[in-house]
Amino acid sequence: MRPMETKVLKLDTARIESAKINEAAACIDSGGLVAFPTETVYGIACRVKNDSLARLNALKGRTAGKYYTLHIGHKSDVKNYIPTIGLRAQKLIQNAWPGPLTIVFELEQEDIDKQRKNLEREVFENLYKDNSIGIRCPDNAIAAMLLRQTNNPVVAPSANITDQPPAVDAGQVLEQLSGQIELLLDAGPCKYKKSSTVVKIGKRGMEVLRPGVYSQAELEALSQVKFLFVCTGNTCRSPMAEGIFRKYLAEKLQCNVDDLDKMGYKINSAGIIGSVGYPASTEAVVACAAQGVDIKAHRNKGLSKELIEESDIIFVMEQIHRDRVIALAPAAANRCLLLAGKTGIADPIGQPQESYNNCAKLIERAVQERISELVI
């Protein structure tokens, strides 16, 4: 690295001076390396261009084949790099970003081809590897402002020489990198003083690649997707829908029905009249059994505001059920849908077995269509 003097700009997180952020962003856009704080450790911001990345590799002591994590200033920016985001990844973004989490996204070939066309060649080639990309959205006001101000995509590995401890304050940055980077934004010590958790997420589930601030158990909870089916008494239609949905979701995920929770998906059902503890009707059990679905263990429960609020997608049988859901939790309106569309699914209660069988078939067709719409 050529000798230089590292300029230090001190910042107060309570009153961030935009001129200093602008200076740092301009430095990055011109090819410079800038150390900046995040909530975990200090990072080295580098534009995604071959010449700048070559400098970063030399500084870090890494080979040219090393891929760095893209850093974004707002979580909505992820859509510029991941055209299709699965349900669990969406949930993780919603709950954990901005925050101390790096997500490695697995992309389908169709999306990789799309990104190859949408992005500059050197940006694409330096960010995507083996149909995947790592992205982080820091929970630090200075980092967010800096990343939003740059005109280039930015990667930001930890501010340290490889095999040395990551810097958690400006002094440690200078100890390792003084004279080798153009600029340092000094905002004092980092909040967590440890690296972000790195997690890989895709159709096969979620895998923690590097432990960090978040534990495996916390990430499992943050990324769990919850479905809720609602009917009147929760003894006929919604338990049938719950059981049939489990069957087809497991097929889509290529896992056993009993492994759905482990894969990060929870399916529940409830009734608007509020009765509790009754089994599914005999006719509903028989109708489901004919489709290879066992709901004998089902016990009904009443719909509650809490159950609605914790659910990500709510399917109801008729408009009256949707009205009740929204009355209990108005914010759920945009995620509460009629399972079979505008036609609804009529209650077979009190009718012969054939009516239950027909109801189960109608539910099956609606479930298959809904499952086909889901991005896993």
Description:
Helices cover 36% and strands 17% of the residues. The longest helix has 21 residues, at 353-373. It is of the alpha/beta class and 376 residues long. Strand 13 (313-316), helix 12 (319-328) and strand 14 (336-338) form a beta-alpha-beta unit. 42% of the residues are buried. The radius of gyration is 26 Å and the shape is elongated. The protein has a ten-stranded mixed sheet with strand order 1-8-2-3-7-4-6-5-9-10, with helices on both faces. Helix 1 crosses helix 6 (141-149), helix 9 (237-253) packs parallel to helix 10 (282-289) and helix 10 crosses helix 13 (353-373). It has 13 helices and 14 strands.
Observed structural traits:
alpha/beta; 4-stranded parallel sheet
What topology emerges from the helices and strands here?
Layout: E1 7-10, H1 18-29, E2 34-36, E3 43-47, H2 50-60, E4 70-71, H3 87-96, E5 101-106, H4 109-118, H5 121-127, E6 132-136, H6 141-149, E7 154-155, H7 170-177, E8 183-186, E9 197-202, E10 205-210, H8 216-223, E11 225-231, H9 237-253, E12 265-271, H10 282-289, H11 305-309, E13 313-316, H12 319-328, E14 336-338, H13 353-373
Parallel strand pairs: 1-8, 2-8, 4-6, 5-9, 11-12, 11-13, 13-14
Antiparallel strand pairs: 2-3, 3-7, 4-7, 5-6, 9-10
